[in-house]
Amino acid sequence: MIMDHVLIVEDDMKINAYIQFLLKSNGYQYTGVASAKEAYEALIATSIDVIILDLGLPDEDGTQVMRQIRSWSDVPILVVSARNHEMEKVSVLDLGADDYMTKPFSGQELLARVRLALRHRYREHPTDPVVQIKELSVDRDKKLVKRAGVALHLTEMEYRLLDTLLQNQGKVLSSQYLIRELWGMNYGPDTQALRRLMANLRRKIEKDPAIPEFIITEIGLGYRFLD
Fold first, then answer.
1. What DSSP string runs through 188-210?
2. pLDDT tens for the chain, residues 1 to 227
3. CATH class entry, domain 130-225
4. Do domains 5-122 and 130-225 have the same CATH topology?
5. Which fold has domain 5-122?
6. Which of 24, 42, 26 has the alpha carbon at shortest distance from 34?
7. N or C terminus of the chain with fewer C-beta within 10 Å?
């Protein structure tokens, strides 16, 4: 059986060793490095399935490492950093990170995020145009959305928002990413229209919009359609 291989890019050797212990205890292969240079070398030499990336590396900022990796690879990147400023988190997601965790972190949550990244990487897109998630079904050919067999009347923008989230199921999408996808590059940073659109969509697809089971708000980051 081939095990998934995780690359840990973390210059705090205690944290690096702790993550290695977690991964080893849960059946993963892993490579631990402490610099950007070593990370690039590992990516060239080894088939990597997920990257756990710290931003404060000694030789290169983690955001630049992400830019370099994203220029040639779509391997999932889980950022684990002490930086907790909201705008920095959002910018990291916009650069191509799949997820973001703030130190200190729970070992079990880290493992859950790794599993989520792997599911997102290896999910097979069905040939059937109808996607079924619990009671929600989406027919992409007909742009028809049903909940428990009852057709929902979505506006064009509500459908586009839902489809964008579904295409990235399990991944955190920042508000600015969604705004660019829905309204274009020149719309600006105002998120009020997105919040209104999201509220309207939730009222239609969720049983209880106050306790959503499909679209989750990741505080300070954006939105995630549950995997």
1. -S--HHHHHHHHHHHHHH-S-TT
2. 457 899 999 999 999 999 999 999 999 999 999 999 999 999 888 888 999 999 999 999 999 999 888 888 888 999 999 988 888 888 888 888 989 999 999 999 999 999 988 887 765 444 567 888 899 999 988 889 999 999 999 988 899 899 989 888 888 888 888 888 888 766 666 788 899 999 999 999 999 998 999 999 988 888 999 87
3. mainly alpha
4. no
5. Rossmann fold (3.40.50)
6. 42
7. N
